[in-house]
Amino acid sequence: MILADPHASEAFGARLASVLGPGDVVTLSGPLGAGKTSIARGLLAALGLQGEAPSPSFAIVQPYAPPEVRMPVLHIDLYRIEEPDEITELGLDDAADDSVLLVEWPERAPGWWPDALRLGLEMLPDGTRRLTADVPAGWKDRWQQI
């Protein structure tokens, strides 16, 4: 899928939000500036967040909970994680059952979320972004709705 600009990335995030539920994990891979946070912002806005969602680069985990959004979401940015063991300290296992996990830079945590919807973004020479998806079995029907 080609995303023409940040608005298209946010619109994709909004469509994705329409099929999410607690316990879902979505990972976003791609270089700096590829649009990972734009997708996250669109998703969070569609879930009811007022205002712009900050990038969680420094906080690592940015939680959102009702009534701010219609379901709990943890927006996670693993860019600053240097060792996979550091992820255990974040306590994500406890939140995974009742929250949506939206994970940027998942390659810093290999093997952590095997059933995640894995999205990749690539910057193209014309300034657009190519979105690719690795859609696990549990996502097949929902992916068709996006």
Topology record:
Elements: E1 2-3, H1 6-17, E2 25-29, H2 36-46, E3 61-64, E4 73-77, H3 85-88, H4 92-95, E5 100-104, E6 117-123, E7 129-134, H5 140-143
Parallel strand pairs: 2-5, 2-6, 4-5
Antiparallel strand pairs: 1-7, 3-4, 6-7
Helix pairs in contact: 1-2
Question: Care to give the gist of this entry?
Answer:
The chain has helices at residues 6-17, 36-46, 85-88, 92-95, 140-143; strands at 2-3, 25-29, 61-64, 73-77, 100-104, 117-123, 129-134. The chain is α/β, with parallel strands linked by helices. Pfam families: TsaE (PF02367).
Written description of the protein model:
This protein is α/β, with parallel strands linked by helices. It has a single domain, classed as 3-Layer(aba) Sandwich (Rossmann fold). Helix content is 24%, strand content 23%. The chain has a 7-stranded mixed sheet with strand order 1-7-6-2-5-4-3. Helix 1 crosses helix 2. The termini are close together.
Main traits of this protein?
seven-stranded mixed sheet, globular, 23% strand, ATP-binding, Rossmann fold, 146 residues, 5 helices, alpha/beta, P-loop_NTPase, single chain
Roughly what is the average pLDDT, rounded to an integer? 89
- Strand proportion, as a percent range, falls in 15-25%
Biggest sheet strand order reads 1-7-6-2-5-4-3
**CATH level-3 fold name:** Rossmann fold
Number of helices: 5
**Under the CATH scheme, which class?**
Alpha Beta
SSE string, helices as H and strands as E: EHEHEEHHEEEH
> Helix share of residues?
10-25%
Query: What integer value in Å does the Rg equal?
Result: 14 Å
CATH superfamily: P-loop containing nucleotide triphosphate hydrolases
How many domains? 1
Structural class: alpha/beta
Taking the sheet with the most strands, its summary is: 7 strands, mixed
**CATH-derived architecture:** 3-Layer(aba) Sandwich
Main location: cytoplasm
Family: Belongs to the TsaE family.
InterPro entries: P-loop_NTPase, T6A_TsaE
Subcellular location: Cytoplasm
